[in-house]
Amino acid sequence: MTTSLVLDTLQTALDKRQPTQPLLFHTDRGTQYTSSEMRQFSDYHSLTHSYSKKGYPWDNAVTE
User: Fold this and answer.
1) At the fourth CATH level, which superfamily is domain 3-60?
2) Contact, 27 vs 52, CB < 8 A?
3) I need a labelling partner for 7 at 20 to 30 A (CA). Which of 33, 41, 46, 56 fits?
4) d(CA 34, CA 36)
């Protein structure tokens, strides 16, 4: 998975749903989620980005 795939998917979801309230985006600490491009995207779209604890994949087990 690449950062561009994540950003394209998030942009599609935002365009389709057009949220009116702040959003929380929870992910693991993969490089596609911790990249500067992801941080800029999150800041621009006012997304609060939440990360799993380092080395603790069970935080995100239900989603995965």
Assistant:
1) Ribonuclease H-like superfamily/Ribonuclease H (3.30.420.10)
2) yes
3) 56
4) 7
Sequence letter at residue 6: V
- pLDDT interval class at 61 (50, 70, 90): low
What is the SS3 string spanning 15-64? HHHCCCCCEEEEECCCHHHHCHHHHHHHHHCCEEEEECCCCCHHHHCCCC
Is the pTM higher than 0.70? The answer reads yes
Burial of 62 (0-12, 13-18, 19+ CB in 10 A): exposed
